[in-house]
């Protein structure tokens, strides 16, 4: 049977765009390398033409240079074709990647839309409004509790502005009566109740220097600090 009908050949896998692009780039690199070698040969032939006198020898060098130049032009044409094909493959690859990205984006948006719909089913605006009203009632009730707990005991609440001004005026008069004409507060003045008891009348504090210091100052026998100078002992010879 195999001899009559033959064996079915397996098809080679179709190359991807990336594989085709990589192959084109390798071919383009080979062509560029050949063009560089031809350029180096052309430089040598140009130097030989400059050093050779006009004649058969120079014409032979020119013929070889012309052949190298034709090969270079051929390779440059091939390189331009490879560049065009590579550019087309890159454009196809870009379009393919864009379609894949769009498919992934659509899949992600569909999944997000489905999840959002499921979440929105569990949320109702009426339930949210009801919860907000309950929270406001709880906050108001909490404020009433705090206000009730913060009340003071045995504190009169019926004091008006006139009564307050009267209390302030009376307090000012009491404070003014504690001062004497010299501006000295009453609590610094001696108590008149104990003036008739001489044992309670203490001597007044010395104002300024003591008697000894005054005598020393009168005689001039004071030191640099204002204290009486110590007597100097006489030295006997």
From TrEMBL:
Sorted UniProt keywords: Coiled coil
Annotated Pfam families: Snf7
Coiled coil: none
GO-annotated cellular components: multivesicular body
Residue stretches of biased makeup (Polar residues): 204-217
Region of interest: Disordered: 1-30, 174-237
GO biological process terms, semicolon-separated: late endosome to vacuole transport via multivesicular body sorting pathway; vesicle budding from membrane
InterPro entries tied to this protein: Snf7_fam
Composition bias type Basic and acidic residues, residue spans: 20-30, 190-199
Family assignment from sequence similarity: Belongs to the SNF7 family.
This protein's name: Charged multivesicular body protein 5
